Amino acid sequence: MDFKAQILEDLKVFHNPEEFGTVTNLWYNGGKYTLPIIIDHETVKNRTILMDDHAEGVNQVESTIYLSFEDLGFIPKKGMIIELEEAGVINLYEITKSVEEYGEIILELGAYSE
Fold first, then answer.
1. How far apart are CA 107 and CA 10, in angstroms?
2. Half-sphere CA count of 32, side-chain side, radius 13 A
3. Distance (Å, whole) CA 9 – CA 25
4. Which strand (E) or helix (H) includes residue 11?
5. pLDDT value for 32
6. 18, 24, 26, 58: least CB-packed within 10 angstroms?
7. How far apart are CA 24 and CA 75, in angstroms?
8. What is the pLDDT of residues 30-44, one digit of tens each?
9. Which residues, given as ranges, of the chain have pLDDT below 70?
10. Which residues are bridge partners to 26 per DSSP?
11. Looking at residue 103, what DSSP letter applies?
12. First CA to last CA across the chain, in angstroms?
C-alpha cells in the first residue's frame, strides 16, 4: 500500500463515530448533510470593539472541523455560511478557511455569540 492509500485508510478510522467522529447534521448552500465530523479548537474570545460599536457582550467564536471528502463529495468555499447542529442547537458559522489535504476537508469557522 502506498502512502496516499494508507492516509485514506487512516482517515476512515479518524472519522469513524466509534473512534473520534460524531455524526452531525450540517447545512451548506441549500443542502442538508448528515455525516461524521470532528469538531476541534472551539474557543470564545473577546472581539475588538470599535468606538461606535454598541454591541457589548458579543464574543467571537472560532472552531475547526474536519470531515472526509469521500463523505461530503465537495469542498465548501471560504466566505460561505455553514450551519452545524451541536447538542440539538443549530449554530451558524462563516467559513474563514477551507482546505482539502489527502482526502480530508479542514474548515476553520467563525461566528459571533452573546
1. 19
2. 6
3. 24
4. helix 3-15
5. 97
6. 18
7. 17
8. 999 999 998 886 654
9. 1, 10-17, 19-20, 41-60, 112-114
10. 33, 84
11. T
12. 49
